[in-house]
Design goal:
- The chain has 2 domains: 141 residues, Ribosomal Protein S5, domain 2, CATH 3.30.230; 111 residues, GHMP kinase, C-terminal domain (Alpha-Beta Plaits, 2-Layer Sandwich), CATH 3.30.70.
- It contains 9 helices and 13 strands.
- The longest helix has 15 residues.
């Protein structure tokens, strides 16, 4: 399962207790590995540790069991960093629903309906690629692929999604709009950045360093990772800058976009 990046993020309102969003998403070549087998009861392991019933992948596996009568054992090896805004938990759940559809355990329509109940990004993570995602993340429309790489940097700390949204609600802001970003009339932005920075102040310093290095820097999701789009003719320079300038960060990688969210091995 590949990671997700929000290259721009606007909050447009609320629906059923959830924020509604407008985002530019892409999947990139950093991901978790998932091994799935049939079992007597639903079990999910993450890096060898048994997950509880509130885990997003467990909830997805239970939806599959309810629909198909088949319980799954899922073993996840994490490659997507925690608390980074890169869709790690949604990627795991999305991959399980994708597996269920591809193996005939659920219809596409049933899987999409179940994914919407499990998490806001899960429908997108069933599909991946360059998409504009609206609402709770499940209203998808394709976008042209960009010929670029993406530098992604994250410090050791993670951001709490719930806390970032709570702080955003205390002082909501809005940008120029995703239409303006797509037309080139406005730069990429993420309205959650001030709230995330108030929770993890180091994000602000990381953004400044990324902008100084690459001339671009936007936080993904609710944080704490920051990303910069890199032209393909500058990837060697970007690799060098990440290696020499961000060695103090727990995660600093140059990633390449993927047209899908899942790769079977």
């Amino acid at each position: 399962m590949y990671a997700k990046l929000n290259l721009a993020l606007e909050i447009t309102g609320a629906e059923g207790g959830y924020h509604t969003l407008d985002m530019i998403n892409c999947t990139v070549g950093a991901g978790d590995a998932l091994a799935v087998s049939f079992a007597e009861k639903t079990t999910v392991f993450m890096d060898g540790a048994l997950c509880g019933t509130e885990n997003t992948a467990f909830r997805a596996a239970e939806k599959i069991r309810e629909a198909s009568g088949r319980a799954l054992r899922a073993e996840i090896d994490k490659g997507i960093p925690f608390g980074a805004g890169m869709g790690g938990s949604s990627a795991d759940a999305g991959a399980l629903f994708r597996y269920a559809v591809d193996r005939g355990l659920m219809s596409e329509a049933d899987a999409v309906a179940a994914a919407a109940q499990v998490g806001s990004d899960v429908i997108y993570m069933m599909r991946g690629g360059w998409k504009r995602a609206k609402g709770r993340g499940g209203e998808l429309s394709p976008l042209p692929s960009a010929d670029c790489a993406v530098a992604v940097v994250r410090r050791e700390y993670g951001a709490s999604t719930a806390e970032v949204y709570r702080r955003y609600d205390l002082s909501p802001t809005h940008g120029a709009g995703i239409d303006a970003v797509l037309s080139g009339a406005a730069d990429r932005y993420n309205v959650l950045e001030p709230a995330a920075i108030s929770f993890c102040p180091g994000i602000d310093d990381l953004k400044r360093r990324m902008y100084d290095a690459f001339g671009d820097a936007v936080m993904t999701g609710s944080g704490s990772a920051v990303c910069a789009m890199i032209p393909l003719n500058e990837t060697e320079r970007a690799e060098r800058l990440l290696r020499d300038g961000f060695g103090d960060c727990g995660y600093a990688r140059l990633l390449f976009p993927k047209d899908d969210s899942v790769e079977y091995i």
